[in-house]
Amino acid sequence: MSTNDIDHLKHEAAARAVEYVQNGMKVGLGSGSTSEAFINLLGARVRGGLDIIGVPTSERTAQLARSLGIALGNLNDLAPLDLDVDGADESDHNLDLIKGGGGALLREKIVAASAKKMIVMIHGPKLVEKMGAFPLPIEVLEFGHAETARRISAVIKSLGYGDVPLVLRKKGDAVYKTDSNNVIYDAAFGPVISETAKLANALSCVPGVVEHGLYIGIATTLIVARPEGIEVIERS
Prior knowledge:
alpha/beta, Rossmann fold, Alpha-Beta Plaits, 2 domains, six-stranded mixed beta sheet, four-stranded antiparallel beta sheet, 25% strand, EC 5.3.1.6, isomerase activity, Ribose5P_isomerase_type_A, Ribose-5-phosphate isomerase A
């Protein structure tokens, strides 16, 4: 599938997601390329008279939304949100997700957890039987991060996954920093993650882990764009 084909599918998923936004809503605005397609379409509706207020999940998202005339507010003042709309790096058929490839997993999860509904936009290959082909991002405090990574590895091994490589994310030659000034380790499981809730809970208990990219039981609607059309999967 070419880059143009993927971009087209992202746009199709975003166009379906925009249909869920109604006048007067408080909307979480996700991060990443599919979310940016959604925000551009949402901006067009705002210019056409739609009255909503958004809560961005990253500084980049906030900048884009402002440039399009979308009003933004503070999560503390607006929660609970009516809707959160975001992309994902992987989803299984239970609507559990891996997110964080773009580095915004902490703020994305806070916003998603603060919304009554979470709509997730993906293109076909991201819907998988077992997650893990996309490396799982784990956001940790910079203080003692190498020691935190050792504890993460030990916990993962104790759950039967063996020696899963952990890679400290970099941007060029520098260590990548999130908007919250933390660092990220990417865990290369391969497509073998099972008992996702058990893994999520175990990672959350590691001292130094701020958040991880497993979203369990949060997404309510999955929009899957394929060349043959759109599939919408609702959480049962």
